[in-house]
Amino acid sequence: MALTPLTHKRLASVVPASNAINDLLDAIASALQATTYYDGTSRTPGSGDAWSVTLEVNTDTVALKCRPPLGGSVDDLAIVLAGVASGSYSPSFISSDTFAVDNILGGVFRNVPGSPTYNGWDNSSPYTGADFTGYAKVVASDSFTINYIIVIESSETLAVIFKNSANSVHLFHAGAILEAAQTNEGESNGRLYGLFSTGGGNTLGITMHTNGVTSNGSLYGHLATNGSIKSVTLDPQTAGNSTQLNFSVPLSGSYPISTSRLAGKLGSQIGWPIHCVDNTASTANFIGVVRQVYRVSDQIGFPVFREGSTDRMYIVSSSANSTNDAIGFGA
User: Fold this and answer.
1) Range of 67's domain?
2) According to DSSP H, which parts of the chain are helical?
3) What total of structural domains would you count in the chain?
């Protein structure tokens, strides 16, 4: 089943008021409340490709309830980003991650009812009746000082990028992020709902394309230890379960991934698809392709690739001060 390609759009970068967890959440909310994109073009939250956000506030902001444009193809999807500076909580986590203060947490929901009952971010079932991946740790604010945050959205996915003072990068990418090989291997709509997180204490590796899939710093990898990289989908058409994923390198042998092979002969930028396999199966079966996110040649920071005056790709590099492995979100 071939899905309609996603069109990503980049929002303006936001500088948080401080590194306090509530200020980081407020900064993400500010990005998602914007009425223009990074280039000044119009944006209406909840319409077109634009997500909407509702804040959960208990004195300070403790969670963001993010929904895709209603009336679109994934009305049953929600993403919650949460975190607190103090207290003890027991929300549901992806296996091996555990609660800690001063950590942004992110989780994905499927089968969210049309008029959902929301029970609070720390409830074992934040949305009544919805399936939940459980939370992954996204970034530990007590050890990672964030300079600015960039949000990249499509009608079905969200990516949140955190850059610190040392120019390292955390990435959280969530929503209907994978296209299944065929309909009966995904949801009935051909999608797989899930998330990728670099983990609370880890960043994108400068060699993320060739790191082992269970190494912190790899891309769309998974490591079953607390705070490490996480890649999961909700098991399609099976209520409540999650399936972990791993990144699979499609180039091998005489032609491994290298900077030169992800750029054209005259300097064109080649977007190489990212394939994922099921790490829970002994055969590591192929399960899907990351939708309109590509490996590209080594880059620095977060440039926009254009063809003339038309945006073609939004780059997320593993470093903002040196040229290293990068990915591109197709515009």
Assistant:
1) 9-296
2) 21-32
3) 1
